[in-house]
Design a protein that fits this description.
Length: 292
């Protein structure tokens, strides 16, 4: 299916205030595939290997109305002749957006849960129970691909990195990529994640349950008002970044990461002479819902 691996690493020549002489590099996970890009392939690869090995023909997962995960999952399922089901957070009117229209085009069966039910009863509601009961031998993947298969795939990202970097950064969604990367870090490396959520306590708890290491931190200071919130300042930053580096960022995750990282660099908040590697986790399909 034409996946470009290993993903390339390139240096970003910073044109910002850089008092501590930070060297910044980006691992172009966004170029792995035009649909299943970034960490989506990492998280789904071993899930689909298992599905094919066990000859499973039905798959179910969860996501928001602009879910990168459901977007990629629907395409992979269709390519592998697997019937897919998506439980979507929000109202049915969301079906008109480009992400879910793409899922529908890929024959994904979409069902909608109100936000309260989605948050508190993903696995204990009539819709989910009916699907599980009626669709024999259906394989369930948690939101964001966050299971042991997903973690295993994300652990492999750092296997492709030959040079040494002091700090590894990526944006935080479900936390799966963070867990995989932290598990694979060397003793003298640090993980710095950037969350798009106002409150990162739940994310920290989830990661803490999966990893015993303490060489990591989650920053949620650059959430721009919360998950999915995109203002003119962030749009301007995305445009400027594209003009400067010829790299497009998505509005939900990677743009907030780089905005925050640039701010921390310019304000002398990172150790002197650090070599930082940022994972571009893709998600560019999310730009369909934002006018730049």
């Amino acid at each position: 299916m034409n996946f470009k691996l290993p993903s390339t690493i390139q240096e970003l020549k910073l044109n910002i205030n850089n008092p501590n002489n930070i060297k910044l590099f980006i691992k172009r996970e966004d170029l792995i595939h035009n649909v299943v890009s970034g960490n989506k392939w990492r998280k789904l690869n071993y899930n689909f290997k298992y599905i094919k090995e066990k000859k499973i023909k039905k798959i179910l997962s969860f996501g928001g109305a602009y879910s990168n995960h459901l977007h990629a999952l629907s395409w992979l399922a269709k390519k592998n002749n697997i019937k897919s089901f998506g439980l979507v957070r929000g109202c049915k009117s969301s079906i008109e957006n480009p992400t879910l229209s793409f899922c529908k085009k890929n024959k994904m069966n979409l069902f909608f849960l109100d936000r309260s039910t989605y948050r508190n009863n993903k696995y204990n509601n009539p819709i989910f129970k009916t699907i599980i009961k009626s669709e024999e031998n259906i394989f369930v993947i948690p939101e964001g691909g966050f299971n042991e298969f997903g973690i295993k795939g994300c652990e492999e990202i750092m296997n492709e990195v030959n040079e040494h970097y002091d700090i590894i950064c990526c944006s935080i969604g479900s936390g799966c990529t963070a867990v995989g990367v932290i598990k694979s870090l060397k003793f003298d490396q640090f993980f710095l994640g950037f969350s798009s959520f106002k409150n990162n306590s739940q994310t920290k708890n989830i990661i803490s349950e999966k990893v015993k290491k303490r060489n990591w931190e989650i920053n949620s200071e650059y959430n721009f008002g919360g998950f999915g919130v995109v203002n003119e300042e962030l749009k301007n930053f995305i445009r400027a970044f594209k003009n400067r580096y010829a790299i497009m960022l998505d509005p939900i995750y990677t743009s907030k990461l780089f905005f925050g990282l640039f701010d921390m660099i310019s304000k002398n908040k990172l150790p002197k002479d650090s070599r930082i590697l940022v994972l571009h986790t893709g998600g560019l399909q999310g730009l369909q819902g934002v006018k730049l």
